[in-house]
Amino acid sequence: MSAVHKKTWIDRVVDGLDFIASIMMVVLTIVVFGEVLSRYVFDLPLVFSNELTLLLFPWVIFIAAIAVTKNEGHLSINFFRSLMPKAVQRWMFAFSKLVMLFFSVYMSFSAYRMGENTASQVMPVLRISKTWLITSVSISFAVISLILIYQFVMIVLGKLEVPDEEEMLDDLDHGH
């Protein structure tokens, strides 16, 4: 019998962002389907569809990356970690969060700087700044950084356990 997990505020925020990414994915699918239908059936291409697809796709991907980080859904190689004593595993897990945090902060900062450089560039059809493409990276990695800080603190306090490979596979089997 599994314990009931009470949702934290981070869980609720990530669930909300996941919902937003799902809505964006539906809109993206409708736009692409509409473009194909319009272009090949009616011979009337939708002029905005390419730019809208270009705009929505990064937002879907990078918002979804937040949920992947929160739910430990990313790829990781745990073979050597699993051979270590539990205390060492915990510190290796914490160290991996710090490495991910460094990368996330770097990506967020770099995307912000790139956004500054593209602020004056305008998409020709939608007439919006190309910065909106880059903003998805900056915002998502900023949120990922906050999640990683939270996870690191929880690991240090002993409130977040190192996941076992069996548990991770079991979660995949049961759709968690």
Could you characterize the architecture of this molecule?
The protein has 176 residues and is mainly α. It has one domain. Helix content is 73%, strand content 0%. The mean pLDDT is 86.
The helicity comes to over 70%
The helix/strand order is HHHHHH
End-to-end separation: 15 Å
The total strand number stands at 0
**Uncertain runs:** none
Overall number of structural domains: 1
- Write down the oligomeric state: single chain
Question: Helices, strands, pairings?
Answer:
Elements: H1 9-40, H2 49-70, H3 79-83, H4 86-118, H5 131-156, H6 165-174
Structure summarized in a few sentences:
One of its GO terms (cellular component) is plasma membrane. The chain has 176 residues and is an all-alpha fold.
Which features does this protein show?
73% helix, 0% strand, mainly alpha, 176 residues, 6 helices, single chain, elongated
